[in-house]
Amino acid sequence: MQSKFIIGIDLGATNVKIGLLDSKGKILKKVNLTTKSFPGRLKLLAEITRTVHNILQEKKLHAKDIIGAGIGLPGPVDFKNGIVDYLPNIPGWRKFPIRKWFSLRTGIKTFVDNDVNLVALAESRMGAARNAKNAVCITLGTGVGGGVIIDGNIYRGSSFSAGEVGHMPIAEKGPKCNCGGRGCLERFVGNKYLLQKARGSFGSSISLERLAELAKKKNKKAIAIWQEAGRHIGVALAGVVNLLNPDRIVIGGGVANAGKVLFDEIENTVKSLAMPTQRRTVKIVKAKLTDNAGIFGAMFLVKENTD
Ligand SMILES: [Zn+2]
């Protein structure tokens, strides 16, 4: 029998999502783990491996039935050699050869990449960037991630760390960022910083979901906070649009649910700052794939590297 199943793993700082998919991309089984419940790299990896074995057993499958496993990780990953450089939000992964480790223990051919690269790949193949030749995908969350698709393929850069839209400086003398830089986009619109801003106006019990609701009910202070965030994102994206001339920019992550108030401001800012030819081409849209984008991206990574 020919192998026809794929394992997709989205390893994040909060959750690990593990999916079994058929070759058409249908998720047959999905298991979520809480990353912090398994402190240390080896404990976490042992649990992921155990979960994969359990899924195979439950579905009466063997390693030979699996075309490959794809793993997305939140940091710079050497896609070619299968090595994690480091993970900024999960300690203990420096220079770890995850591809070799995982394939030796499972007997499954393994491919690894940065998590947002895989989200961009999934959006490009089946989501909001479908049929776009050049696209940039950004995810707004605790961190602000980015992935770049050039001529239909992931653009990884010279040391596999391209696409960090969240760490584009938008203010020369801005506040210091975790990455070592200063005035990065993430330092203005990462969840933590947006929440700080919201607390200043609405007190400590405010959440970003509530802030979005308030804006929809035309609360002026809430609208102003989202508009300011939209301008910051728009400034960074105007630079991206001028540099890469993409036909699509896909915006995902929890903050993207703020909706029209945020998107209008992003669009207006890009239209007012980007160069005429580039700004006429680009469409700014909301991500289509939500929870399973990482798993789907991992599936395409396997599919497109095993044919
Ligand atoms: Zn930064």
Describe the structure.
This protein has 307 residues and is α/β, with parallel strands linked by helices. It has helices at 41-58, 98-106, 115-126, 186-189, 191-202, 208-216, 220-244, 260-273, 276-281, 293-306; strands at residues 5-11, 15-22, 27-34, 66-73, 77-78, 83-84, 110-114, 135-140, 144-150, 153-154, 248-252, 283-286. The strands form 3 sheets. It has a 5-stranded mixed sheet with strand order 3-2-1-4-7, sandwiched between helices. Strand 9 and strand 10 form a beta hairpin. The longest helix has 25 residues, at 220-244. It is globular and about 55 Å long. The model has no long low-confidence stretch (mean pLDDT 96). Bound molecules: zinc ion. Zinc ion is lined by residues 167, 177, 179, 181, 184, 186.
Specify the CATH homologous superfamily of the largest domain. Answer: ATPase, nucleotide binding domain
Overall residue-averaged pLDDT value:
96
CATH architectural type of the largest domain: 2-Layer Sandwich
H/E series, N to C?
EEEHEEEHEHEEEHHHHEHHEH
Side-by-side strand order of the widest sheet: 3-2-1-4-7
Stretches where pLDDT is under 50 for at least 5 consecutive residues are none
**CATH overall fold name of the largest domain:** Nucleotidyltransferase, domain 5
What is the distance, rounded to the nearest whole angstrom, between the alpha carbons of the first and last residues?
17 Å
Structurally, the number of domains stands at 2
Could you say which structural class the secondary elements and strand pairing correspond to? alpha/beta
